[in-house]
Amino acid sequence: MLTTRTARALYAVLVTAVLAAPAPSVCSAASSTESAPGHSAPSAERLAPAPGPTGPIRARIPGVRGLEVAVPAYVWANDQMLNELTATGPAASVVVLNPGNGDAPFGAPWQARADVLRGGTTTNGERTKVLGYVHTDHGNRPPAEVRASVDNYLKTADGRLHVDGIFFDVVSRDCGPANATRDLYAGYHRYVEEAMQAVDPDAPDLVVDNPGTAIADCYLEPGHRTADIFVTYEDTYAAYTGGGWLGGNVFNETTGYRPGTELDPSGTAFWHLIHDVPSATAMRAALQTAFTRGAGYAYATSTAMPNPWNATPAWAFGPQTSYAAALG
Questions:
Q1: Cα-flanking dihedrals φ and ψ of residue 68, to 5°?
Q2: Whole-angstrom Cα distance, residue 121 to residue 52?
Q3: Is 266 left (phi over 0), alpha (psi -120 to 50) or beta?
Q4: For residues 251 and 219, what is the distance between their CA atoms, to the nearest angstrom?
């Protein structure tokens, strides 16, 4: 009888062999006639149900986890990228929706898209979690505006939750004087929790903070934690595999950078985002590196700046979700 680790190793070899084949062609992210975030929103459309997984569902094994794929999708609700994410099986574990930089109304087209995405089944047998994008300007955006953006997703006209939480972007990495900046973000975390519980007391909430680099360890201090997940890398593949990795997911001004695993017993606190990835082989290398560096979530894409999160990678989504699950 195979041991758990032997079975996982065998699965990884099989997935790698399958993924060595050329990736299928993918459609362009959006036609030139479609609007993009910051322009007029598209009209509502009828969405097909999300598919089930293409292979057997593997329950998460206590003490051993695989890497999960979490995708920022900075496009409009009817964009081809979201069509392909919706059709992917196994599904991504997390998808971030971004209507007009988080400031456009989260109306019927967005709610329909979110509902369908949330029907996707991940490699862990769980449902995809959808998050609403909110920018914070390193803690300098007026708190009333931040809360209004949160309300855009959580206080809907139909009185229902269509998202599983909030993705706070452009987050400060520093504690601030007397931890004031950290406490500001802790307050945003509580606001999301309270807003979601007011709609559905049984709804679990998911909050992500994205500084895009290692974050001060005060943000994960028990009793003051500002998020469930922290994006601790967002940059190019060249930087990720070169000198752009600072040496850890967290830092302390006295002791420097460290992995932060002692602050993350579940193995799910850190998320790495890598763009400008040159090939499917490099994608797999990026995911393996993310897992080694303590990330519980990762996403590697071939697209590039100025917006690397607005198109499907050259290798599509399914090969990435399948390969990520084989790591562990």
A1: -115, 150
A2: 6
A3: alpha
A4: 10
Do residues 298 and 70 make contact, with C-beta atoms less than 8 angstroms apart?
Answer: yes
- Tell me 207's DSSP state: E
The pTM of this model reads 0.82
The structure tokens 């695993």 sit at 261
C-alpha to C-alpha distance for 148 and 155, rounded to whole angstroms: 10
CB 29 within 8 A of CB 81: yes
CA dihedral (50, 56, 59, 61) in degrees, to 10, reads -140
Find all residues with CB under 8 Å of 153, minimum gap 6, and list them: 106, 132, 134, 162, 163, 166
Return d(Cα 197, Cα 204) in angstroms, integer. Answer: 8
Phi and psi (nearest 5°) for 200? -145, 100
Q: Which residues lie across from 168 on neighbouring strands?
A: 134, 209
- Per DSSP, the residues of 166-199 read EEEES---S--GGGHHHHHHHHHHHHHHHHHHHH
- Residue for token digits 């993705």? 167
Cis peptide before 319 (omega within 30 of 0): no
Q: What is the mean pLDDT of each run of 10 residues along the chain (328 residues)?
A: 37 37 31 35 38 36 69 97 95 97 95 97 93 98 98 96 98 97 98 97 96 97 96 98 93 94 89 98 96 95 96 96 88
Q: Are strands 206-209 and 229-236 parallel, antiparallel or unpaired?
A: parallel
